[in-house]
Amino acid sequence: MTTFYRTSLFSVLFAFGLSSAVLAQQNVMQYVSAANAKVAKAAALKSKWDGPTSGPKLQKDKRIIFIAQDMSDAGISGLFAGMKEALAGTNWQLLPLNCNGNCNISGDQVVKQALGMKATGIVLAGVDAASQAKGLALAAAAHVPVVGWHASIKPGSVTGLFTNVMTEPKEAAQIAGLFGVVEANSKAGIVVFTDSSTPFLAAKSAAIVDTLKQCQSCNILSVESLPLPESRKKFPTVIEGLVKKNGVKWTHVIAVNDVYFDMMDNPEIEKILQGTKLRGISAGDGSTSAYKRIHKQDLQIASVPEPLFLHGWQLVDELNRAMSNLTPSTYIAPLHLVTSQNVSYDGGTKDVYDPSNDFRAKYLSYWGK
Question: Are both 137 and 262 inside the same structural domain?
């Protein structure tokens, strides 16, 4: 795609922060030019460390309970692997507690269960913190710090959490939407896949839609809410209905998570889509299967991945800060867009987003591990 790294006066202005209101008033050429600059910035190499360079030494003898919304989710399992890597060679225990998709409806029970496992620290991974208010109050009363990952729609301090680790979800959604506009040269028929039962994913899809609405020649065909725990059974029927309804008008899929493309990547769906030329873009999380598809340009052409290993190390660091009676680091990792043009960098040869910013050495430099 030859337009990907072009810049212009408009793109330079956009890079310095044109508001969406101004952007919405631009014509198609101006919009695409501005979108190009934002996309190019997100796709650049992530080789500079911009996180914390000092902090407390690692505490001793800690027992961390990792409450997972669903350990089969590639993002959550990758995050757990990052924490395991960070804790290798320490005397910290890391134990998973898998909700199998039902954490958000279990009230205070899952956090209470973690406390019953004698946790000295808790991670909420993909679990909405607001749904755990009673349990979080119990943790606070027991002086057990809780950190989150995708546990709210905003990063940083959240009620009941010491901090919530993630990239900016609305910005990730905007990048996914803008790349769709750029890749299609602003002529696209787009279906958005989301899970509106999860506030974090619902906020992402709302931002995708808001971004696409600014493109005068883009057509949002529909927004499909497919809750992840139950969507696999429904997916073939949904795809068949979309093909019958939209035909050749359907050119792009933008999803809030790579898992929707995992579901499309099977013979039953491929048969339904036979003859179509769909292009897929995900606003998270950068799974191994997503990287393989991007390498091959097989349906999915881009993702806005989370740095799962980095986030795993950051979660350990944030827990250690809480246990050392310090404030959170406030670090938010910069957004990254992976496409066929940069898929071999920043960990892409191993089918994972692992920024080349030497974050492991930075954390180890003050942990004293």
Answer: no
